[in-house]
Amino acid sequence: LTSKASTPTIMLRVCCALLLMGVSTSGLKVALLANHAADAWEKGSPCLNTSRSLAICNAEVYVAGAQAAAGAGAAILVLPEGYGLVGDATETSYYEALLPETRVACVEGTQIDYPIQYALACAARNNSIAIASNVFVTLPNGTRRITEIVYGADGTTIALYHKHHLFPPGEPKLFTPGPFNPTTFELHGTTLGIVICYEGFWPDLSGDWSQMKALAAKNTSTITWSVGASVGVLPLQAKLISSKFKTAVVGTEDKEGAKAHDAITTATGASAPTTDVAIAHPAGFTGATFVRTGQTL
After folding, report:
1. What pTM, to 2 d.p., does this model score?
2. Consecutive H or E run containing 250
3. Helix H or strand E segment including 145
4. Quick one: which of 114, 125, 269, 289 could link to 36 by a disulfide (CB 3.0–4.6 Å)?
């Protein structure tokens, strides 16, 4: 025997399926890692021995954040700029070799030479959540980049973008700017665009809105914004971008000083209602990092 489901029944099933994926009729459920401090480890902790060990330990905090975000039903977790892994960047900081986009990071053995990319890709796959991460990397030609790597819920790389506008004077001394390449990716039928730290402030300072305009031309409905430190202006700038381009913004920074700042805005420029979720901190971590979730409307 066969039967035809009524239209209301079909719609209900579709809505339930979308909710399970972190999508609702009122937008995408997103999450960000909030109030993270890279150096918040107990004195004498092996995490503080080297820049590499610090990055690996902070990646453990990120993994715990992915677990919490997925448990809260978010479709994507946005992480701070690479300073959230290594702290202040210097010539002796840890710069991880970048895996080719076509190579799967979450494969046994990868953790030896690519511990950060391995940890984040596996966190995405193991928790079925997309992760917008930011890592300080080296390319085969020896140059360093500030790179956004977006992992899909299966742990594969779905977007890769190198920061184009570096923050002076320090970053240009350590990193090579990526090409002008406004980058988007698709998630559950939603187009998300990538902006890294200073790129979100550069347009106001220079009058050059070409990156934002290019993202808008690609029908971007949400911008992921990994930030180093904004001295408190991140929330206001997120609202400005939202209002100007009718796009939601999900931005977060690592803690430098008394407080880290973040923002989840709607496409109208309003602050989205948010919920804070505790995470299971690794042993020896003394910070107050948590996950903040919200709905892009």
Report:
1. 0.91
2. strand 248-253
3. strand 144-151
4. 289
Decide: 139 and 98 in contact? Cβ < 8 Å: yes
Residue pLDDT tens, the chain, 297 long? 344 444 444 443 434 444 444 554 457 999 999 999 999 999 999 999 999 999 999 999 999 999 999 999 999 999 999 999 999 999 999 999 999 888 899 998 899 999 999 999 999 999 999 999 999 999 999 999 999 999 999 999 999 999 999 999 999 999 999 999 999 999 999 999 999 999 999 999 999 999 999 999 999 999 999 999 877 899 999 999 999 999 999 999 998 766 789 999 999 999 999 999 999 999 999 999 999 999 986
DSSP secondary-structure letter at 286? Answer: -
Query: Is residue 223 classed as helix, strand or coil in its secondary structure?
Result: strand
Cβ neighbourhood burial of 73 (10 Å; 0-12, 13-18, 19+): middle
Q: Which residues contact 88 (CB under 8 A, 6 or more apart)?
A: none
The stretches of 21-144 forming alpha helices (DSSP H) are 51-71, 83-86, 110-113, 115-127
